[in-house]
Amino acid sequence: MIMPSVEILSRIQFAFTIAFHYIYPPLSIGLGLCLVIMEGLYLKTGLSLYKDITRYWIKIFALIFGIGVATGIVMEFEFGTNWATYSHYVGDIFGSALAAEGIFAFAMESAFLGVLLFGWNRVNKGVHFFSTCMVALGSIFSALWIVIANSWQQTPTGFRIEGHDMQARAVVTDFWAMVFNPSSVDRFSHVIIGSFLAGSFLVMSVAAWYILKQRFVKHAQAMFKVGLSVAVIAALLQLFTGHRSAHYVSKYQPAKLAAMEGHYDSLAVADMYLIGWVDNKKQQTTGIKIPGGLSFLTHGSFNAPVEGLNATPEKDRPGAVNFVFQTYHIMISIGMLLIGLTLLAVFLLWRKKLFNQRWLMIIFAWAVLLPQIANQVGWYAAEVGRQPWVVYKLLRTSDALSKKVTADQVMFSLILFTLVYILLLALFLYLLNRKIQHGPDISELAEDEYDGYYNNNIEHRPS
Amino acid sequence: METILGLDLPTWWFLVIGGLITGYGVLDGFDLGAGALHLFFKKEESRRLALNAIGPVWDGNEVWLVIAGGALFAGFPLVYGVVLSTFYIPFMLFLVALIFRAISIEFRSKESWRWWRQMWDISYSVSSIAITLLLGLVLGNLIHGLPINAAHEFTGNLLTFFNPYAILIAVTTLSLFMLHGAIYLVMKTEDRLYARLTVLVNNCSKFFILCFILTSMATLIYVPHMTHQFKNHPELFILPLVAVLTLLNIKRNIDARKYFTAFLFSCIITSCLLILFAVGLYPNIVISTTNPAYSISIYAAASSVKSLRIMLLIAAIGTPMVIGYTIFLFWTFRGKVKLNEMSY
C-alpha cells in the first residue's frame, strides 16, 4: 500500500476532528441561550412547567457539552502534535487567544455547569439562574476567543515577522489590532448566530416531535415557543452578518470569494450564482445566476468590478474551487430556507394555527439538520477557501507540519480517532434518542398551573 | 531583559505554567485517583457514590489541563511543538483516554443494565489509570532528558520513552494520585464505602511511601542534574524537607482518621513534588541527553516580551477568577456526598 504523505494525513485528521467537534459547541451555545430563557421564564412566572423543561434541557446540554469538551481538547493538542512548525510560528498570537479562552471562558462554563446539574437542592433559585447565565455566557466567550484566533489566521494584523524560513515567527506588536483584526467581529457574529440557530432548532425539533406524537404537549409547545423566539431573530440577523462577512471576504481574501462564486476572470460586472457547477480544468462555471448580483453584494452597486481567481497566481489560490463553491451555496440556500420557515411559523403562531399543522411539525422535526449542515459547510468554505495558506499569505499549510512526525504515526492516530469518533457519535445519538423518548419529568399540576396562569393573565388584561 | 520584582518575563511565565500544572495535579489528581480505585468498589451503590463524589467538580478540574496547555502554547511555543510532536503516540493515547474517561462518567448512569454499567466502570477506571501513567511517563522523560539534536529534533523512537526511570515516575504518579483520590473519597463518604476506603487509604499510603523512597533514590543516583539548583541555592533544600514532613503528616492524620487534614497535606505533597520537578528543570524545559548545549531553555523558547507581558496581565486577571469559581464550586458541594435524582 502506498502511504499518503504526512501533510495529507494530518490535514485529513485535523479536518475530521474539527468537523466532528463542530457539531457540539454550536448546539451547546444555542441551547445555553434557550436555557437562560426557559429558566428566566420559570423565575418570572414561578410555573413548574418551565422548571420541568429547564431541567430536561440541562440534561441534554450536559450530554452535548461533555462530548464537546472531550473532542475540543483533542484540537488543542493537535496543534502541537501535528503542526509543531505552525505552533512555533503563531504561538505568540494563536497561543495567547487559546490561553485566554481557557482562563476566561472554559473555566467559567465548566465550574457553573456543576452547579447547574447537581445544584438544584444545594443553591437557591437565584444562584441557579445566575449559574445558567454564566454557563451560557462562558460558551459564548469560548467561541469569541476561538473565532478571534481563527480570524487572525484569515486576516492577520497587529504583528511583525521575526526570523527567517522555518525559524520565522509572528510576534505581537498590537494586541487589540490582533484581537479586532478585520474579520473577527463579522466572523464571530456569523458563527454565534449560526450556533443560536443550531441550538434553537434542536429545541424546536424535539418539541415538534412531541407535538406530533401528542406527548407532553403543553411542555412541548412552551419549548417550541422559546426555540422559535430565538430562531426567528437569529435567522433574520444571519442575513445581515452573512452579507457583512461576504463583503469583508471580498475585501481581504478576494481569491476566497472568487472561489465561492466560481469566478476565474476579473469582471467589470460580476454575477451571483444561485446554483451552479464549477469546472476547474476548463475554468468555467455554469448555473443559474443573478446578473450583477455579486457586484451588488460586495460593493453595493450592480456594475462594480470584482476580482477573479486568475488575479492570484495558481500556487497561491485554493485548488478545490467547486468544493468551496458548493459548500458556500449550500450554506446560503439553507440560510434562506431557515428565514422562510421561522417567519412562517411565527405567522401561524400569531394566527394560533401553528401547532395543528402536522406537515409543518414534521418539517421542524427534521429541520434540526439544516443549521448543522449550514454550519459545517460554511466552515468548510471558509477553511478550504483559505488554502493553500494556513496563515493567509504568510504560512503555507504544507510548511506548518511537525518535522519529525511520520506518516505511520499520523495514520495510526487517524484510524484511532475515526474509530473512537464513530463510536462516540453512535453513543451520542443513542443516548440523545433515549432522552427524547423518555421526555421531561413532569411535576404534578404543572399543566394546570400553566393554564391557570395564562388564563388569569388574559382576564386581567384591560379590555 | 525586562524584569518584574527581580524576575525576568520568561521566568514569570515558567512560574505561571508551573502553577497551572500544579493546580491540575492537585485538582484532577484526586479525581483521576478516584477513577483508578473505582474497580475496588464492588457494590453498585458504592460505585455511584464514588462517582458522584467527583461528579460536580471533575470537569472544572480538567479545565486546568486545558489552561496549562494553552499557557505552554502561548508562552513557550517552541517547547509546545517539540514536546507534543516528540510524544506523538503517547499524547494520542492520552487524548483517547481523556475522551473515554469523560464519556464513561457521562454515559454510565444512562442505562441500568448490568453489562452497560460494568463496561463503563472498566472504561472509567482503565482510562483514569492510563491518563495518569502517560502523564507520569512524559514527566519522567522530561526529568530524565531526551535525545534532542541541535535542531531541536527528537532522534529517539517510541522505545526511548520506556526507560526504567520514566516508568518509575509513571508508577509513582499513579501511587500519588491513588492516595490523593482515596483520601478525597474517604473524606466525602460515609457508612460502608467509608469503611472500605479506610482500608484502601492505608494501602495506598504504603504504596506511595515505597514509590517515594525509590524515586528519591533513583533521582539522586541516575538524574543528578535535577539537584544542580540546590548547590547554588541551598535554601531550596526546604522543599524536599517539606515533602518528607508532609508525607509523615499524611500518615499521622490518616492513622488518626483526620481525613480533611490529610487531604490538605496530600494537596501539599502533590504541589511540592511538582515544584521540585520545576526547580530541577529550570531554566530548561526540555533537557537534551545528546548534548547539554542542545537543551531548550525558557529563554530560547519564549514568546515575545510583549506577548508575555500581555499574557501575564491576562493571567493576573483570570487566575483569581478561576480560583474563585473553584472555591465556589467546592463550597457549594461541601460535605458528604448524597445520591438524588440528578446524580450520575
Structure description:
The complex is a heterodimer of chains A (463) and B (344). With 463 residues, chain A is mostly helical. Helix content of chain A is 70%, strand content 6%. In chain A, the strands form 3 sheets. A two-stranded antiparallel sheet of chain A has the order 1-2. Chain A has a two-stranded antiparallel sheet with strand order 3-4. Chain A starts with 5 loop residues before the first helix and ends with a helix. Helix content of chain B is 74%, strand content 3%. In chain B, helix 1 (9-37) runs antiparallel to helix 3 and helix 3 (58-75) runs antiparallel to helix 13. The interface between A and B is large, with 74 and 69 residues.
Task: Record keyword descriptors for this entry.
heterodimer, A: 463 residues, two-stranded antiparallel ribbon, 15 helices, globular, B: 344 residues, mainly alpha, 3% strand
Summarize the SSE layout with pairings.
The complex is a heterodimer of chains A (463) and B (344).
Chain A: H1 6-21, H2 24-45, H3 48-82, H4 84-118, H5 125-154, E1 159-162, E2 169-172, H6 175-179, H7 184-213, H8 217-252, H9 254-261, E3 272-279, E4 284-290, H10 293-299, H11 321-350, H12 358-366, H13 369-384, E5 389-391, E6 395-396, H14 407-438, H15 446-460
Antiparallel strand pairs in A: 1-2, 3-4, 5-6
Helix pairs in contact in A: 1-3, 1-14, 2-3, 2-5, 2-7, 2-8, 3-4, 3-8, 3-14, 4-5, 5-7, 7-8, 7-12, 7-13, 8-9, 8-11, 9-11, 11-13
Chain B: E1 3-4, E2 7-8, H1 9-37, H2 44-54, H3 58-75, H4 77-86, H5 88-108, H6 114-144, H7 164-188, H8 191-222, H9 228-232, H10 238-255, H11 259-281, E3 284-286, E4 296-297, H12 298-301, H13 305-332
Antiparallel strand pairs in B: 1-2, 3-4
Helix pairs in contact in B: 1-3, 1-6, 1-7, 1-11, 1-13, 3-4, 3-13, 5-6, 6-7, 7-8, 7-11, 8-10, 10-11
Pfam family, one (chain B): Cyt_bd_oxida_II
Family (chain B): Belongs to the cytochrome ubiquinol oxidase subunit 2 family.
Keywords (chain B): Cell membrane, Electron transport, Heme, Iron, Membrane, Metal-binding, Transmembrane, Transmembrane helix, Transport
